[in-house]
Design goal:
binds flavin mononucleotide, alpha/beta, ISF_SsuE-like, 6 strands, globular
Length: 214
């Protein structure tokens, strides 16, 4: 059992990465091997609309044909059992690089022919961990639910189950006193970091374990 983990945050050791690492520990407890890839270490673009993945008579490998540093990752995804993604919310959506990555992964496997809309031949269980600054109570009015549901639907085109985890009200800076950020209540943020974030980490652990036990 192999789980591929994609960190869509530019920060390699903060909220998103921490949760992904807990999920990797959970995966290890289920006997799986996992590999972590930081998207921001790669040099790649989003879908360029060449339609090579839809062309009649194509030799389709399941992989987007664009030849940049994402290609190797997309090839690895073809042979993994579990794919776990993590992204902070940036300006109301996943990060730009995570979006570009999903365009390349999902559009290549999206069928314009079949009723089930998938031309992926394998079966990959998927998970998505979202991190964000807004408090949990604001999510309903934020429009983010549409993003969580839409990405879940797209990831289900890889023929497995898909689930997601939300970690809200994250602690954004190392030290709030060093930044102009008076809109945030640092006492509240510290409390969430000490009480809620560890619970989110535990949920991430269980998610990794669950995904690798399916
Ligand atoms: C460019 C940028 C835009 C952001 N936009 C949002 C936003 O729209 N909504 C939100 O809840 N948090 C927003 N945040 C906060 C991050 O989502 C949050 O701090 C997250 O935990 C960062 O993840 P990381 O620690 O893994 O980098 C933004 C942060 C940055 C840097």
């Amino acid at each position: 059992m192999e789980m591929l983990v994609i960190n869509g945050s530019p920060r390699k050791d903060r909220n998103t990465a921490a949760l992904l690492k807990y999920a990797m520990d959970g995966a290890a407890a289920a006997g799986a091997v996992s590999n972590l890839i930081h998207l921001y270490e790669l040099d790649f673009k989003g879908c360029c609309s060449c339609f090579a993945c839809k062309k009649k008579g194509r030799k389709f490998s399941g992989c987007c044909v664009m030849n940049d540093s994402l290609r190797d990752v997309l090839e690895k995804i073809q042979v993994c059992d579990v794919l776990l993604l993590g992204s902070p919310i940036y300006l109301g959506n996943i990060t730009g690089l995570m979006k570009s990555f999903l365009e390349r992964l999902i559009f290549a496997n999206l069928s314009y022919d079949s009723k089930d809309r998938s031309q992926f031949t394998g079966c990959i269980q998927t998970g998505f961990i979202y991190t964000m600054g807004i408090p949990h109570d604001f999510i309903n009015d934020s429009g983010y639910q549409y993003i969580f549901d839409t990405n879940k639907r797209y990831l289900e085109l890889l023929n497995g189950k898909s689930e997601y985890l939300i970690s809200a009200d994250n602690y954004q800076f190392d030290d709030y006193s060093k930044y102009d950020a008076s809109n945030f209540d640092v006492v509240h943020k510290s409390l969430i970091r000490e009480t809620q974030f560890p619970l989110d980490c535990q949920k991430a652990y269980e998610m990794g374990e669950r995904l690798c036990s399916l």
